[in-house]
């Protein structure tokens, strides 16, 4: 296990490029963090673990999940494994029983369910759970898929286009959405107002007798102000459908009209710092892209933009106070302007300062799917291709003009997606010394996102790219099932993808678009993996091997590369007939259609890449036994190229391995990524007593299995 990587055939530069590749995998699947967190909240795992007397076993947690007719502990385990890696929960081995025990953390305390609304808000807790549920609800998550269309065509923001009206008008018509939105707002209102009152304190409301909270939702924000300053008359102003669901708070009047008077306006909103290092600055940039997806015209603003807005609205003076919250405090009519002024006082204890970090982590994971969606948007707009093929850095308007099939390219929308991707180091930006304009450039990371030339049998003409994989894993077909993880853990049955579309490879057989999506995604990773494998395992692997069959070989790219490197090898690409029918011809490769669970064509060696992870143990044993028959008793071997999960591993691809396992949970009934222990058990059961695992700098490892 973890045998030394052989040879140094790949140069240092290529080693660095594995890191770049790993970064792309990470962002591609970042939405998995958001979905796993949402699943945990839906199952009430934070509540279960925080209210327990001590750490709990897996089966105890599963049994405590409410409304779960058939709780699936083994599925739950896989979501927990990811969340333990993210430090949302803890796990430790029980010294006596050897069982794994799970516990809560300060991070998970931000994900507790609220008690039913009450006018005594002290009885309530500080939680981001309602916000997380709202932002990861399909209503809010789906519009992100349409970012590229919005940048190409303009018009209404994707959410509004989908809802057919403004978000707030939809809330007026739909009580469920109204509740989702208001609860999300109320939970962040409590957090922000407490931070604000601790950090700005008495100065802020000096000499003020009444405060109106404009768009105050159900009134939690103003109620906290009034509670701290009982002399203040609080007015909560919002639309009637919101006010109608607002609880009563002492000292607060809910109204539908603004009283007029002087004083000052206190804006609590994000101030974007594109390169900021503050704990909430990153989320601020992601939130701006969220606004792009949700609200036509809505955006998060930089200080410059706030200033302009205030100038135009008759507020010549303002002061911004950064507080340890997502939003800053932006006050007009103040003498000084102290952007990023020191946080006042030490009213909050050190412990609470640390809790801002925890809170920021939760925001990050909650919105991590924004990274995946921004990257997908960039690929759909062909931004990597545009920037890599340019003679030099490009201006925003040059990039916008170069987007293909864009009847009305929206440079200002594009700017916001680019700002996030520059922060993620996918692209670069610099100021042109002469014109002062921002110039954008490509990076080594973005070189992993180029479009492939049309398929060709000369695979050398093609490039190494993860773009087709990114497009597939972020397609609604593949993302939607993640929303159903908690239901799957509660009820069992078919994996969410299969429940919706049927078994993945049957769906491909019926749906040419999906067939293409899947085969292209597989082929792009096949090229990357085989090149890494050949460089790192080299001649040893195919010593004395005259023929190789690639089982579940897709359209044949993997075996074609083996044959190209070892032309004496007779290559057989074996897959189902709907896949074989779209496969290009490769010299030295015979394509054979069939069912691997019936029979596998004979050869000296079998390779099988990313096939066994699709299946449960029983079918894997059946398939491996067929492979064993295919290679005969003597000399042959089966070369499995698949992920070996290292739950705490620090290898560049180990994190993605753990996320990928949850992806398998969402997509394939029985499918999973396996640890070495699980591989060993599978091989033992299938008649392979000996095996060797070679780690290569790729998502998958190489497992050589010998029948004797
Ligand atoms: C995840 S893909 C991997 C493709 C390829 N090995 C790669 O990594 O690029 C799994 C492949 O198994 C194939 N497959 C599924 N069921 C099969 C069966 N019963 N017989 C043969 N191939 C099958 C699918 O069509 C698909 O091409």
From TrEMBL:
The O-methyltransferase dimerisation domain, residue ranges: 25-113, 363-451
GO molecular function: O-methyltransferase activity; protein dimerization activity
Source domain of life: Eukaryota
PROSITE patterns according to UniProt: SAM_OMT_II
GO BP field: methylation
O-methyltransferase C-terminal domain mapped to chain residues: 144-253, 257-315, 482-688
Keywords for the protein's UniProt record, in alphabetical order: Methyltransferase, S-adenosyl-L-methionine, Transferase
InterPro entries: COMT-like, COMT_C, COMT_dimerisation, SAM-dependent_MTases_sf, WH-like_DNA-bd_sf, WH_DNA-bd_sf
One Pfam family named in its UniProt record: Dimerisation
Sequence similarity: Belongs to the class I-like SAM-binding methyltransferase superfamily. Cation-independent O-methyltransferase family.
Protein's recorded name: Uncharacterized protein
């Amino acid at each position: 296990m973890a045998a030394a990587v052989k040879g140094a055939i790949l140069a240092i530069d290529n080693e660095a490029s594995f890191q770049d590749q790993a970064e792309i995998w990470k962002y591609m699947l970042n939405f998995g963090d958001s979905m796993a967190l949402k699943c945990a909240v839906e199952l009430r795992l934070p509540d279960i673990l925080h209210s327990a007397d001590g750490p709990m076993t897996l089966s105890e947690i599963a049994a405590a999940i409410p409304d779960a007719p058939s709780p699936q502990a083994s599925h739950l385990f896989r979501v927990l494994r990811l969340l333990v890696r993210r430090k949302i929960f803890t796990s430790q081995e029980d010294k006596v029983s050897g069982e794994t025990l799970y516990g809560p953390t300060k991070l998970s305390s931000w994900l507790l369910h609220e008690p039913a609304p009450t006018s005594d808000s002290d009885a309530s807790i500080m939680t981001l759970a309602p916000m997380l549920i709202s932002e990861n609800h399909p209503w809010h998550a789906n519009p992100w898929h349409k970012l590229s269309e919005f940048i190409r065509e303009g018009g209404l923001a994707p959410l509004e286009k989908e809802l057919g009206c403004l978000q707030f008008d939809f809330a007026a018509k739909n009580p469920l959405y109204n509740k989702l939105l208001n609860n999300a707002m109320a939970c962040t209102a409590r957090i922000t107002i407490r931070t604000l009152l601790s950090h700005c304190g008495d100065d802020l409301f000096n000499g003020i007798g009444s405060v109106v909270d404009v768009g105050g939702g159900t009134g939690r924000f103003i109620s906290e102000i009034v509670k701290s300053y009982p002399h203040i008359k609080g007015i909560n102003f919002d639309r009637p459908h919101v006010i109608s669901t607002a609880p009563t708070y002492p000292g607060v009047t809910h109204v539908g009209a603004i009283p007029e008077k002087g004083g000052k306006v206190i804006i609590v909103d994000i101030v974007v710092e594109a390169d900021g290092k503050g704990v909430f600055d990153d989320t601020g940039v992601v939130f701006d892209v969220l606004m792009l997806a949700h609200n036509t015209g809505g955006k998060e603003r930089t200080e410059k933009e706030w200033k302009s807005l205030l100038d135009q609205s008759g507020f010549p003076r303002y002061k911004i106070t950064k507080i340890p919250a997502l939003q800053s405090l932006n006050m007009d009519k103040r003498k000084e302007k102290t952007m990023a002024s020191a946080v006042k006082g030490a009213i909050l204890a050190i412990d609470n300062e640390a809790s801002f970090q925890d809170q920021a982590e939760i925001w990050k994971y909650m919105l991590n799917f924004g990274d995946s969606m921004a990257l997908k948007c960039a690929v759909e707009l062909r931004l990597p291709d545009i920037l890599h093929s340019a003679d030099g850095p490009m201006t925003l308007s040059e990039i916008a003009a170069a987007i293909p099939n864009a009847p009305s390219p929206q440079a200002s929308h594009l700017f916001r997606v680019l700002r996030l991707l520059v922060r993620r180091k996918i692209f670069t930006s610099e100021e042109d010394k002469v014109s002062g304009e921002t110039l954008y450039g490509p990076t080594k990371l973005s070189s992993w996102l180029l479009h492939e030339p049309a398929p060709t049998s000369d695979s050398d003409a093609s490039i190494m790219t993860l773009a087709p994989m990114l497009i597939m894993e972020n397609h609604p077909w593949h993302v939607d099932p993640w929303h159903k993880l908690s239901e799957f853990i509660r009820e069992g049955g078919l994996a969410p993808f299969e429940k919706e579309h049927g078994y993945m490879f049957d769906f491909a057989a019926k749906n040419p678009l999906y067939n293409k999506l899947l085969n292209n995604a597989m082929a792009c990773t096949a090229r990357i993996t085989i090149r890494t494998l050949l460089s790192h395992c080299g001649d040893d692997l195919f010593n004395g091997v005259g023929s190789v069959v690639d089982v579940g070989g897709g359209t044949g790219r993997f075996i074609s590369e083996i044959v190209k490197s070892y032309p004496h090898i007779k290559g057989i690409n074996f897959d189902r007939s709907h896949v074989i029918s779209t496969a290009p011809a490769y010299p030295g490769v015979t394509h054979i259609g069939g069912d691997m669970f019936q029979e596998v064509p004979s050869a000296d060696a079998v390779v099988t890449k990313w096939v066994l992870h699709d299946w449960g143990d029983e079918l894997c044993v059946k398939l491996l036994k067929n492979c064993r028959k295919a290679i005969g008793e003597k000399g042959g071997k089966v070369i499995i190229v698949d992920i070996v999960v290292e739950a705490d591993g620090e290898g560049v691809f180990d994190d993605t391995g753990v996320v990928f396992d949850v992806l398998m949970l969402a997509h394939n009934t029985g499918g999973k990524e396996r640890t070495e222990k699980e591989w060993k058990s599978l091989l033992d059961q299938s008649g392979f007593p000996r095996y060797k695992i070679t780690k290569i700098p790729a998502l998958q490892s190489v497992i050589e299995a010998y029948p004797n």
